[in-house]
Write a structure and sequence with these properties.
Structural class: alpha+beta
GO molecular function: peptidyl-prolyl cis-trans isomerase activity
Organism: Thermomonas fusca
Strand content: 5-15%
Order of helices and strands: HEEHHHHEHHEHEEEHEH
Catalytic activity: [protein]-peptidylproline (omega=180) = [protein]-peptidylproline (omega=0)
InterPro entries: PPIase_dom_sf, PPIase_PpiC, PrsA_foldase, Trigger_fact/SurA_dom_sf
Helix content: 40-55%
Number of helices: 10
Largest sheet: 5 strands, antiparallel
Oligomer: single chain
Family: Belongs to the PpiC/parvulin rotamase family.
């Protein structure tokens, strides 16, 4: 007998999504035959299969809009993997005849209800113990602090994202203002009133105390790396360029175990559930052979 083929892991993300597995499996399931690429009356080609069921390139193309990535190849691979997971679950619910046994809840589709019942039957919910939570708290002290925060003033020199000339001019003006403010920092409020395109100009450019995630991501990433004082370079965002002054920085205080116990319990429970889901999907792959996914993912290398 030849060597058995090693099981291939289908990575899925549950912890980071904030959605139930059922929602993840169905949130992007659309049956619009008129969407996606057309091929002059011919059916779209299929190189991806779950058992005897083909997943066409048209289906993958439609799914890609829900899996944004740095490259089209990565987006295509993520979309293909999501469709494979959904098809594995669909075929298993059909094998077990769940369509006749389940009752949809609320606005659930029948297929969605079938997958929900399937996972409820097959995946055991395990609640972490108090000792489990305390052990994780002790081993990861850096994770349990109140959010860091900074107090910021700014001057926004506005320019649309697609206005190349305007953005160049905004950056140039920001650099000039920074050079002047280094020599005369007391002019900041005056420059705010004269130059800023942000409504905060009426409050002297004050944005107040900010925690991570409260502003646009690109602005957030940059300002939380700054030290107290005038930033030496313009901070770019989708709105234009900002002259930024950080007036204060406060590090978050350590949180007591009782303040984070439920958060830890939820996280550990999701970790265990994800591992069990991964093992369950691997088992389904042994029942319904997946072909073509390796080739699609190889294109991302």
């Amino acid at each position: 007998m030849g060597e058995s083929k090693p099981r291939r892991e289908l990575p899925i993300t549950v912890i980071d999504s904030g959605k139930s597995v059922t929602e993840e499996a169905h949130a992007h399931h659309h049956d619009h035959a008129d969407e996606g690429p057309r091929s002059l009356g011919q059916a779209a080609p299929s190189w991806l299969f779950v058992g005897d069921v083909a997943i066409s390139e048209a289906e993958i193309a439609r799914e890609m809009q829900f899996h944004r990535a740095m490259t089209p190849e990565r987006s295509r691979a993520d979309a293909a993997r999501a469709l494979v997971v959904r098809e594995l679950l669909r075929q298993e619910t059909a094998r077990l005849g769940l369509q006749e046994a389940v009752q949809p809840v609320g606005g659930e589709a029948v297929e969605e209800a079938c997958i929900r019942v399937l996972l409820e039957q097959e995946i055991e919910n395990r609640v972490p113990t108090e000792d489990d939570c305390r052990r994780y708290y002790a081993q990861n002290p850096e994770r349990f602090h109140a959010p860091d925060r900074i107090r910021v003033r700014h001057i926004l020199l506005g320019a649309a994202v697609d206005d190349v000339g305007g953005r160049f001019a905004a950056r140039e003006q920001a650099e000039k203002l920074i050079a002047e403010l280094k020599a005369q920092p007391h002019l900041f409020a005056d420059f705010v009133m004269r130059h800023s395109d942000c409504p905060s100009k009426d409050e002297g450019g004050e944005l107040g105390w900010l925690e991570r995630g409260q502003t646009t991501p690109e602005f957030d990433r940059q300002v939380f790396r700054l030290r107290v004082g005038l930033a030496a370079f313009p901070v770019e965002s989708r709105w234009g360029y900002h002259v930024v002054s950080v007036d204060a920085i406060e590090s978050g205080e350590e949180l007591a175990f009782d303040q984070v116990r439920q958060r830890i319990s939820d996280y550990l429970e999701l970790q265990v559930r994800q591992r069990e889901l991964q093992q369950y999907l691997q088992g389904l792959q042994e029942r319904y052979e997946v072909r073509g996914l390796d080739a699609i993912e190889a294109e991302t290398a």
